Amino acid sequence: MKGDSVEIVVEAGSETRTYSIQATRAGRRVEVTHGRGLVEVTEVTRGGTPVRTARFMAGRVVALVEHPAADEAPREGELPLRVA
């Protein structure tokens, strides 16, 4: 969903660098995969087509923080919708 974002903190020698990947348009989401020594963060369309990808060596990743898109808060007196 637009608003999804992931922050990645990577060790770069004697300092750390922070990268941010965001879903830039409506209907897009950000997916994180981890395997074979790589962390991959991809912005994906509704149909599953990757738009852009960032790859980081897993051994250098210090922190990975996912920020989901903010859902609308229920109005006063309403109950949030739940899918069973």
Question: Structural class per helix/strand content?
Answer: mainly beta
Strand content: over 45%
Any idea what the radius of gyration is?
16 Å
Q: Give me the number of helical elements.
A: 0
For the secondary structure, the number of strands is 6
- Give the termini distance in whole angstroms: 21 Å
Secondary-structure element string: EEEEEE
Overall mean pLDDT: 84
Largest sheet: 3 strands, antiparallel
Shape: globular
Spatial ordering of strands, largest sheet: 2-1-6
Number of domains: 1
Task: Classify the helix fraction into a percent range.
Answer: under 10%
List unreliable stretches of 5+ residues. none
Structural overview:
- With 84 residues, the chain is mostly beta strands.
- The protein has one domain (5-67).
- The protein is 0% helix and 54% strand.
- It contains no helices and six strands.
- A three-stranded antiparallel sheet has the order 2-1-6, with no helix packed on it. It has a three-stranded antiparallel sheet with strand order 3-4-5, with no helix packed on it.
- β1 and β2 form a beta hairpin.
- The two termini are 21 Å apart.
- The mean pLDDT is 84.
Topology:
Elements: E1 5-12, E2 15-22, E3 29-35, E4 38-44, E5 50-57, E6 61-67
Antiparallel strand pairs: 1-2, 1-6, 3-4, 4-5
